[in-house]
Amino acid sequence: MGLFEDALRHARASPDDESTQEIFRAAEAYITGAIDEKDQETNEANPVYRLAVCTLFSHWYDNREAVGNGQELGFGLRSLISQLQAESLKEEQEEEQ
C-alpha cells in the first residue's frame, strides 16, 4: 500500500474529498523539507518518515476548516521530525568520515 493510502486510512479520510491530495502533498513536502534526506524512495522506506507524514496529514485534514482555532502540532509529531532530522545528520556525518 502506498503512503497516500496509508495517510487516508490513518486520518479516516475519504479519497473522494478534493482536498485530500493537496493536504497530503503539503504534509509530505513539509516533512521532507524538515529533514535533509530528499530521496523519496529512502524516505518512504523509513517507518518514522511514513508515520510523520501520516500524522501531519491527519492533523491538517482534521483541522482543515479551522481559522484562528487551529491546534499546534502535537509533541509526538515534533518528536518524530526531530528524530528524522537527527538520523539525517548522523548519516551526513558518517558520509564525511
How would you describe this structure to a colleague?
This protein has 97 residues and is mainly α. It is built from five helices and no strands. α1 packs across α4 (47-62), α2 packs across α4 (47-62) and α4 (47-62) packs antiparallel against α5. The termini are far apart. The mean pLDDT is 84.
Helical fraction: over 70%
Measured distance between first and last alpha carbons: 37 Å
Query: Would you tell me the structural class of the helices and strands?
Result: mainly alpha
SSE series: HHHHH
Report the sheet with the most strands, covering strand number, pairing sense and barrel closure.
Answer: none
SSE order and pairing:
Blueprint (H helix, E strand, L loop, with lengths): L2 H9 L7 H16 L5 H6 L1 H16 L12 H22 L1
Helix pairs in contact: 1-4, 2-4, 4-5
